[in-house]
TrEMBL record:
The UniProt record lists the keyword Hydrolase: yes
Organism expressing this protein natively: Herrania umbratica
Gene designation: LOC110411688
Species lineage: Eukaryota, Viridiplantae, Streptophyta, Embryophyta, Tracheophyta
Keywords carried by this UniProt record: Hydrolase, Magnesium, Manganese, Metal-binding, Protein phosphatase
SUPFAM superfamilies attached to this UniProt entry: PP2C-like
Protein family (similarity comment): Belongs to the PP2C family.
Listed name of the protein: protein-serine/threonine phosphatase
Any one GO CC term of the record: cytoplasm
UniProt xrefs under InterPro entries: PP2C, PP2C_BS, PPM-type-like_dom_sf, PPM-type_phosphatase-like_dom
Cofactor: Mn(2+); Mg(2+)
Any one GO MF annotation of this record: protein serine/threonine phosphatase activity
Keyword Manganese recorded: yes
EC numbers on record: 3.1.3.16
Amino acid sequence: MQSRSAKKWRTLMTAITKRLGLCFVGVISCVARWRIGMIKTLLWLWSVAALESVSKLHFLVQCFNLESISEDAVATDKKHNVLTNFVPTLRSGEWSDIGGRAYMEDTHICIADLAKNFGCNLMSEEPVSFYGVFDGHGGKGASHFVRDHLPRVIVEDAGFPLELEKAVTRSFMATDAAFAKSCSLESALVSGTTVLTAIILGRSLLVANAGDCRAVLSRHGTAIEMSKDHRPCCMKEKRRIESLGGFIDDGYLNGQLGVTRALGDWHLEGMKETGERVGPLSAEPELKMMTLTKEDEFLIIGSDGIWDVFTSQNAIDFARRRLQEHNDVKLCCKEIVEEGMKRGATDNLTVVLVSFHLEPPPSSVIQRARVRRSISAEGLQSLKCLLEG
């Protein structure tokens, strides 16, 4: 026999379903088991004039766990929303230096609104921001070609921006093929380049990497690596290479290259093959997608010349201190490069920094395990590659 309170709630729910114009089968029979938090939620739904169809309510029901909503859960959701409702305000800076090399083969790009830059109307209020670092080898032809062509290829892909991950992957491969064709017409271009790009759309961050450039995110002062270095010491890459008929000799791919993924290098025999056969040097990027929150402070993108002398956490710590001092992203990039040269970097150095806030990073004390400093940043990364497999 139903209690008076159950009958009362049954009457209330009948009124709600009539108001919404729905046939809410099965709901009334379990009303007595619902918690007060669920009742408050449904009353709120009643007041929402936009709920005019079963499909809309079904979508909202899926968003809520009907068996577990309580006042504590609502409070937790509010706390969660403080992070997830964050809208980043982007500021970017960049700096590069020839370092200890005779030639500058690094290059970079920062585009605040990718679609607008190429005259594409996305019918969206949110711009798509694009950042990239290109570390050339064997000349600057490949790095400059990819810098100049890849952004447009991404925008013109049929999947942009709704299928962003697929669009970026296809664009890397298409740009690599286009460079091969250009090299066949102009031999002076022959060279290769590693590529790392970061695309920001609203709160979504997509990092695509082919090579040993690296992107590191600062989350409340903690370094989060958004990419993995594609080097011969990585066991996962080694297995992929050997499955395709390649080999690692003295730490080099086929005894020639210090990276296992790159665009270009079509002139190197046995590295890339056309047709059905796939060579061991891949232009396919490794992707990582993340939703930014208020705790995410900035992103550092650097060529391997930076990471030869900085660990990921060390770079984040250094950048945070500088931004706390002057909050100038371009000056911070300059200081990172200068510090790298002081530490004995011998390669070209390029860094792009993208801040997600107008304010400098907050001061914080982060407890971390002590790390012995008897190993170089490069040595530490090589060890990490072996351990990760």
